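Board notes (copied after class):
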Amino acid sequence: MRIEVLTFEGCPNAEDTREFVRQAVRLEAADATIEFIVVNTPDEAQQIRFSGSPSVRVDGEDVEPSANSKGAYGLMCRMYEFGSKFSGAPSIAMIRAAIRRGIRRSRERKDAHDAQQFESV
């Protein structure tokens, strides 16, 4: 599993997000590679579909499922909604849920691949 933490230089929520990701990986006992990526330019933000800082992706999927279809990209601060409250960083629970979704997707791909191999024998 690949987890990306994307930020811009000087993001006030970057360090908390990095620590939340580390905690979530430990709590889920996930076999994950964590990459810390600094986005430097508006063009780069558009190219990599950067939804604001900080962003966390698990195997390419944003931890906030609705963010995958928003289409607003750039060097901007990001807010996460938790019921009626907002935060500048995703919660550990949100990151853990994304890790579990990533594990399920990986298992589903493996099962589909195994079934296809079995059918071709």
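Comment from the instructor: The domain at 2-119 is CATH 3.40.30 (Glutaredoxin). The chain is about 40% helix and 20% strand.
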